[in-house]
Amino acid sequence: MIKETVFKSFDNKEALEAQLAERIANQLQDAVDARGKASLIVSGGSTPLKLFELLSKKAIDWSDVFITLADERWVSPEHGDSNERLVRNNLLKNRAASAKFRGLKNMYSSPEEGCAMAIEQLGSFPTPFDVVVLGMGNDGHTCSWFPCAADAELDNALTSAELCVAVTPGNAPHSRISLSKSAILASRQIYLHIVGEQKLEVYRQALASEDTREMPIRAVLEQHKTPVDVYWSA
Ligand SMILES: O=C(O)C(O)[C@@H](O)[C@H](O)[C@H](O)COP(=O)(O)O
């Protein structure tokens, strides 16, 4: 049984998005004020689109904010499944157009080959990362830590000291590059952003046991080093 951390519940997704966008913007600006620059790690998927839109309009010093992805599909940035595309279209606009975005996909033909370059690209990011926003799949994955990946790959994602790892999910499209567990936990604040009854049920299942290989989101929920606030709405 995992001890629950902060769980914020909202009646609707709009209320959640408004509050989470405000909180993230404040934390990023506080980081810029305190240390001169800030880092923001975001996830792809369908959940954060409106959050990105709201965030993009916040009046903060975006030119001092470094943004990257928690994970990426190994497809070109123009591909419909690209998380980079999603972030460019929904977050890197309005006031946030001046943020410093570094994607994880590069010219190499596979994530295995491209990992070293992706890590190099993140070299200018202030660490610990200031804010990380994660999503969660119905199979209990987060980032691209898929329970359906080969044992060795998932173990690598959960134990590697490297910033990025390669993962090929057994039953989801595209091979992926993902930040590792050690990279994600090297953060000042993690948010888990989930919407709907089904995700709530998956989250409850995740808290009910400790096998991270079965539900990799547990690797984030069971630790007490980095604060994790769960934002859920109906
Ligand atoms: O690129 C991705 O798909 C992710 O980063 C992934 O970890 C995502 O956050 C979850 O799969 C939830 O996705 P939804 O928001 O679409 O439910």
UniProtKB/TrEMBL annotation:
Reaction it catalyzes: 6-phospho-D-glucono-1,5-lactone + H2O = 6-phospho-D-gluconate + H(+)
InterPro entries recorded: 6-phosphogluconolactonase_DevB, 6PGL, Glc/Gal-6P_isomerase, NagB/RpiA_transferase-like
Residue ranges of every copy of the Glucosamine/galactosamine-6-phosphate isomerase domain listed in the record: 12-224
Residues forming coiled coils: none
PANTHER family in the cross-refs: 6-PHOSPHOGLUCONOLACTONASE
GO molecular function, one term: 6-phosphogluconolactonase activity
Metabolic or biological pathway, per its Swiss-Prot or TrEMBL entry: Carbohydrate degradation; pentose phosphate pathway; D-ribulose 5-phosphate from D-glucose 6-phosphate (oxidative stage): step 2/3
Domain of life: Bacteria
Similarity comment: Belongs to the glucosamine/galactosamine-6-phosphate isomerase family. 6-phosphogluconolactonase subfamily.
Role according to the record: Hydrolysis of 6-phosphogluconolactone to 6-phosphogluconate.
Name this polypeptide is given: 6-phosphogluconolactonase
EC number: 3.1.1.31
Cited NCBIfam families: pgl
Any GO BP: carbohydrate metabolic process
Gene3D superfamilies documented for this protein: 3.40.50.1360
Pfam families for this protein: Glucosamine_iso (PF01182)
Record's keyword terms, sorted: Hydrolase
Cross-referenced CDD domains: 6PGL
